[in-house]
Queue: 2 jobs
Job 1
Amino acid sequence: MIKDYRRALVYVVPYWRRLLLVLFISLFSTILSLAQPYIAKLLIDDALLRRNWQALVLVAALMVIVTVIGFVLSILASYQYTAVSADVLFEMRLAVYEHLQKLSPRFLARTKLGDIVSRINNDVAEIQRVAADTLLALVGNIVFLLGSVAIMVWLNWRLFLLSIALVPMAVVVLRRFQNRLSDQIKQMRERSAEIGSFLIETLIGMRLVVTSTAEAREVNRFRARNRSFIDAMLSMQLTSFFSGALPGTILTLSTAAVFLFGGKLVIEGAMTIGALVAFMAYHLRLLTPVQSCFGLYTNLMTARVSLRRVFELLDTPVDVRESTNAKPLEAVQESIEFEGVIFRHDRDNLVLDEVSFQIPAGKICAIVGPSGAGKSTIADLLLRFYDPEVGTVRLDGHDARALRLHDLRRTVALVDQVPFLLNASIAENIAYARPEALPEDIIAAAQAAAIHDFIEGLPDGYATQVGERGLTLSAGERQRIAIARALLRQPSVIVLDEPTSALDPLTEQSLTTTLSTLLKGRTAIIITHRMSLVEIADLVIVLERGKVSQIGTPQELLKHNGALATMFSVA
Ligand code: ADP
């Protein structure tokens, strides 16, 4: 437990000044609240029993001053504390978010989105709740406890020993519940994350759900997940209740003992009434911080589960790191080269098997081959989403691993097969990688991607909002917007992953013609299944089961009765 919190300290340290101030204020307000029962003793012993009017007025005034100042200070402390803890926790969220940006697509493909969201949202919020609610209380409580104990021992040490006699028993009972509680909290978190994942998955796949008439089945799955969350929550609540209430109940027994023994002392004249009243007040108020320290333990356990879930994300290893003295890259002027590249996602899933080829700068290269041959993986390696297990990817002779990541990704623009559109205007979508682009540049890029006329035809033109995840556009329109987005960046190398796969034959023909003029003289890699795109290439690489089976100009390869010829004679 301490290890997890020590690690969290990294986020706290930069805020130590503000925290120290908060602690100081809260310390002061605790000291003031410690004085209150003592004021009651002064009231009884010095004012009431001695019938001293002056003392009475003084004590009353003292009471008001102490209470008001204490109240103001405690509000100030908790407000400040909430503000600092919110800042600290945002730093933690930010760290996770920045780490996620560094992880490979493999991680995102394997991890449920709902689970990640729930860790960043719910778990961090839970840590924040515990931090805001209880950590400040802990400091106050400990100071209050120590102060109360000191005053109680001073008032009557025998009575004090009696009043705490049952504390060890309460602690033993509490411990019995702690481990069970920690497991149950973890279970509850996981089930809540499952609901999130379920919702995200079925909302994204709503078309599939409806077209498969699986609505009722999904409702039942939703119900079952909800049920299992509620079950976990209820058993957690029960344990939490017992772990809080039982020790408290045991401690209450000691209150009765203090009544009896303290009363006896007063009746025998061994203690003043004021001292007993003050003692009782300290004793009763002792229960609150003790109980709240018990509750605090529970809270710290909950927060630890959350902390661990957040740290788990932060500990996901990054596949690709920038080397310490990475070299800059302006543009690719000579070539792109794969040399003996071996890559696998899992131990027994060889995706690329000693792939070697060289694409001279300024040439269009088509990569063809059956689905699953590893074509998209070549693009992923070029952009360094992954690094090869063996072999090297080179740009102008530089190992991609030695280059600045930012430069590499600015130089090579990738248009994914299923491009992602943001919930923003078309213009903003095209200009995503170059937000400062001028409207005429955006239009020129759209014209080049053969999508300008379509955009002009929309009621709001370039200002048309694309719905969340671009659902209001057809796949072909999305693809062309993504091509415009890549062209606007005027990248040195452009990689198009099946750019015409979603187009009708007519649009495909028009885009192919556009691409052939547009890409002339540029370094381009086109992953494709289309003969028309193969024909505009200077170089064709045929990939089969992770191996390069043919390489050459389209004319050469089609002349021979090789893989390419077979592929397209069948098609
Ligand atoms: P292509 O683009 O030629 O259709 P890919 O490069 O997309 O092929 O995929 C090559 C192989 O790698 C396929 O067998 C695919 O199942 C596998 N693959 C792709 N992405 C992942 C991943 N994130 N985890 C595991 N295997 C993957």
Job 2
Amino acid sequence: MAVHRLCLADIAPQRVLPVLVLDDASLAAPVREALTAGGLSCAEVTLRTPAAATVMARMAEDPDFLVGAGTVLTPGQVRAADEAGARFVVSPGFSAAVAAECADRGLAYVPGVATPTDITAALAEGFTELKFFPAETLGGVRALTALGGPFGDVRFLPTGGLTEANFLEYLALPAVPAVGGSWIATSALVGQRDFEEITRRATRAVHASQLGDAGNAGRR
Ligand code: 3PG
């Protein structure tokens, strides 16, 4: 039976993927609940803290919440993420070894790209949905618009420097099914246990992306 690997539209149906850097696993469930209350039932948990595997496992206890691992650089991290319940893997760059481990485990892999050469290499390996990182530093919306010429079939998940003020400009691009960013649940908000503000930010992001969709449909 063919394995259906998640695509970006499955990973982030509301078109916004919260990126989390959590160093206290006891906050995993409250953060998950705060995001869910705001309409976002997915998160990329970056493997930048010793607590990350436990954070993913606690978040994955809710079967309706889709947890992925971010900042994945090695096959060993893919194994750890899979065992913790992650269902997709995101990297800042492209790693053939990470891609192979994800394929063995049936996990979706969203590799990172920064240049036309990176994109060409990822396409050659069969990847058409790519993280564009660090998006703002690389030229943001203008860079993605330019890349859409030669790479019209590629879909991008821009992350790095996105905020409440600029993410809709990215979502307006046909090549961008979803965006990622830490602005919804920043480390500062999590540290302050300000779960209500996380819910407010998630709610605003969901509403704004839905309004953006309606506007785009009106123009078509
Ligand atoms: C990441 O993978 O770390 C994301 O790019 C997060 O970037 P941000 O903190 O600028 O949103």
